[in-house]
Records
---
Amino acid sequence: MKKRVLALIMSTTMVAAALTGCGSSKEETPAADSAASEAGAATEEVKDYGTGEIKVWVAENVKTFTETKIKEFQDANPQFAGYAVTVEQVGEGDAASNMITDVAGGADIYGFSQDQLARLVSASALSPVVGENETFVKEQNDAGAASAATMAGTTFAYPLTSDNGYFLYYDKSVVTDPTSLDKIVADCEAAGKSFYMEINSAWYQPAFFFGTGCTLTYDTDDMGNFTACNIDYASENGVKALKAMINLKKSPAFVNGSSVSNATNAGAIVDGTWDSGAAKEMFGDNYACAKLPAFTVDGTDYQFSGFGGFKLMGIKPQADANKLAVCHAIVKYLSSEEVQLARYNEVGWGPSNVAVQQSDAVKADEALSALAEQLAFTIPQGQYPNDYWALGTSLGDSVIAGEYDNASDEDLMKVLENFQTTCQSYAQ
């Protein structure tokens, strides 16, 4: 505990030196490093960060857990105990919208989903994470989570989880090789079972396009407006992805869907950790999980990719450097190896901390292990216009309806050119 206290004192001293106000920026990192190098000599003098109030927003299912951990932290670190911390129930889906609406009245510390990062940065609702704290984020967490907390080269949050994405649940008495889509589908056909994947969902659908190497992301300005669409679906790789969707749809085993609860006679399904209980019940003793397989187009194999999702915790910029340092110390602890493991054990949140991911408890969780392996092939979901989600559904619906069953590569390119132009129009 003494070593952890010393590390936190050093890191928060650094933050106080580097972040003296709301206008702090990445360029201040050298000053932070200088402060950190002097922290050893100053450690004995840093015993009191003053008093104040800190408001924290977290999801309902971790409210009590968070209250308990913050109290434990303050009890063990009396230099931070002068702050009265209030934990309020505000979920990740609402926190960002509430912060953007009223940054001044919002929480000092809050959890949010990674797809809200750009909006929060644009609203000046996040304090940069610099120096040793940034190193902590990058070294302690998996690459996907660390990337999700970063925008334009600056780290703005501390990862809490790597548990939102999709992978393969399957019946191991049916599927003999979960690494190949062709073999999975063939096994399902032979057994009279179904293979479920929701190809008319703009969240699942990119698994094909990102898998062949395509890009689809959006840039935003300081106001959160979409300024550019980075897309290359209208390409040879895009045609390959669309052909893979069409080929899958042609299988008699294919069923469009991604919910275990709605699946019947399934041999395999692409779904997420939220359905692990239902999947265990459905497959029984034959329950198994794996990362998504590779799919084959024109003789070449491609690894399914897709979106990855992460829960992050951010800090509102503070005028008081002492309060800012305390906020960083608290969030660093809440995102630490110790607390991520405890949070997994208590509420089942999948950790982003690489050491916790290798713990016996997490490695025994087949769903989380499969997801962790799959997340290495995904990109963090950023911000997308609302119309994009409907457009992806329309493309998938056309595939399912058989509109492209006999289309040539040239015809498919035209479909993708129209899709790409439409996506770009959302950023004009």
---
Amino acid sequence: MLLAYDHGYEHGPADFDERSVDPAWIMNIADSGYFTGVVCQKGIAARYYDKNKHKVPLIVKLNGKTPFHQEASEEPVSVQNCTVDEALELGATGVGFTIYVGSEFENQMIKEFAKVEREAHEKGLIVIAWMYPRGGHISSDTSPDILSYCARLGLELNSDAIKIKYTGDIDSFRGVVRAAGNTKVFVVGGPKVDIPNDLYRTAYDTLEAGAVGLAIGRNVWQAKNPLEVARRLAGIVYGNEAIKL
């Protein structure tokens, strides 16, 4: 399980309450033993992640965009703001990079990703691609055919893992996982759900379809009891090993 906390850059502070606005509080959750990685932008990592203190592996997000370009006529683009060397200096074991597949700017993002992927792999870092279908050419960002294409592109670009949306049912998502080949598939947690059992069912179904795990943020740190949600999810992702935590 990856604990995602790159929302401040992507969404602004609207997703945070008085607890989750504090990155130190998030790092404590990430270091609880339930997570195999914490994802954040370089500023959060530089000020709140201590590679000599925290045990949870760090994944630094290398690009991003603000939420101020959301009009239907605007094509999304996520630009690089952090280098592979900076991520290494911060103690990262992996890097993340968004590609908006279908955007008019997808070639720009693919070009930047190709350089990042080559350099990161040369320096021993894991590379995770956020494969998000968006833009005027995309009819649905949960279409099985479109998500399968995104998954395949992640494999073709030599990603170690991809972070992708769920199609909504096991059978169609199996096709997405097959398209990714031996590139690992993490499913995004998405917006906060009101019924926890819906979250647990989705987690179970995506793993049944072949995903290796979850990249989840708001459904953990917006919860009334984040560690209880993390414990329940860990039980689904890790099986009996979670009981030992």
